[in-house]
Amino acid sequence: MIFTVTLNPAVDREMTVDAISFDTVLRATDWQVDCGGKGFNVARMLKSLGISSVALGFAAGKSGEMLNDKLRSLDIETDFIWVKGETRTNVSIVSSENGQYVKVNEPGPSISDTDLAQLAQKIGDRAQAGDWWVLAGSLPPGVPPTYYSKLITIIQAAGAKVFLDTSGEALRQNCAARPLLVKPNDEEAHELTGLPVSTKAEIASVGTAISSMGPVSVIISLGKEGAVLVNDGKAWMAVSPEIVAANPIGAGDSMVAGVVWGLSQGDSMQDALCKGIACGAATASQKGTSVGSLEQVKQLLAEVQLEEI
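and the corresponding structure tokens:
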């Protein structure tokens, strides 16, 4: 089974405008409301691939109820800790002219020590050997920066595997818990290590440096260019196929879903990376916040190029 944990979920409201400009009123030509938060995006992509998962995390208020109902309408099982306040709303404004966007994220509700203990207990009760857990996204107010380490320890003690997808201090302070896999992008990897990321060789070196901090394997995503994998002392570059990009928001989360999809089926890390690249590209080609289809992923997977660095 695959589980996703989203500590700071959101209602994602996206509005499309002809062009983004400032100090004026913009008129939306289209709009869409979806479940937001990195773990939920992973769960939606997994569902599109025909893979079941369980979504855990914190939810609050009417917005939380809406997220719960939306996920369940997609036949995604949920198991939330309900907290005080209101689940955040994130707003994106996307230009139909050139695909540029502006996204503003709210901080989210404040989480208490009791809430944290309840979620850790719930995860401990569910964790079993052979399962995959995706811990994804930012930390809401009240969550200590090392909380992911606590969850990683609980999950891996049960024999399950952890894919940690976060950034900043949440990534820096939880690498030492030795998750099986982390996935910063190139900018986040540079911020974490202070090392340059201008060439494939430099990016591979950065991946090695991050691996020395604790993670067993490291994927550094490069947007439309693809991603670099560092695993077992070697590095590979997976080049993304060419697509007509419509909206890159959420493509990285679809990539995570594709990697976990592959690993959960027994693929090698390299083959799983290729599936992740195909999933990310499929989602980036979709308008709004839709995710790619299994048919698209299969077509794009044949075009992914993998080379050792």
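(Above: one complete record from the training split.) Residues 62 and 86 are 7 Å apart (CA to CA).
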